[in-house]
Task: structure prediction
Amino acid sequence: MTAEEELAQAEALAERHSQLAKEASKLPPEQQTQYIFEGMRQFRTEYRQEFLKNK
Amino acid sequence: MRRLFDSELRYIENVLRYRNGGTLAVVGEVETEYYSSPRNNAPTHFNTDYFLQFSNDLENGKSFCAPILPNTAGAEVFVMIDTRTRTLLRTDLVAGEAFPIELYDSFLDNIDLKLMALPRRFAIRECAYNRVFVINNEICFLSFPTESSPVVRGDKSLLNTGPDSMIAYYTDNAEVVCVDGWIRTSVAQSDWKLEAIPK
Result:
């Protein structure tokens, strides 16, 4: 990954986190970390697959 | 409600600096916080996921993120701020346990060296709760020998403070119950990244 690609990935992760945190904040605290963990895991997997496909 | 530990504010500022996210104008008190149990059934809590929320209104929140260990990807800390008011809204550690404590060895040695000046022996690797982030050439750490999540208790003292480090410790009945601080370090950037693959 180049520095530009890394930065793009970091921005995409941050954007997804922002969406997930807003959704998660409506849940009880004990469910929020798991909701964000699962959402980020799925997003990271899809991002990685897309990245490798476009290489 | 509680105020942030020094290491917490420092890592939050480091994430923003690392991502050119600007500076904070308002840092409120923690309104809601939650700490996950270890996902790997480890006996101690090392970089277990958590969140701290400072406001219930996240509508105008924008997040920034940084890996918690240099030259790695897959364990990140996120900081959400309101970009109009520069108010801190929330911070999350996500997949913090992706990399084991052994990968932090050299940074823990650095902390150990500084903690030798404490009035009592303090074995950071034996703590019930440890948080160690290395972001922007600084090690930020928060450690509790007996608590499995951060708790504010005891009397605060400064172990040292200067341009390259700041370490505070809390004592309760002459026992050190928490160490909290940051140490400047140097990190060589690698072309190779250790990546935690999602399962």
In short: The CA atoms of residues 147 and 158 of chain B lie 21 Å apart. Chain B is about 10% helix and 40% strand. The longest strand of chain B covers residues 175-184.
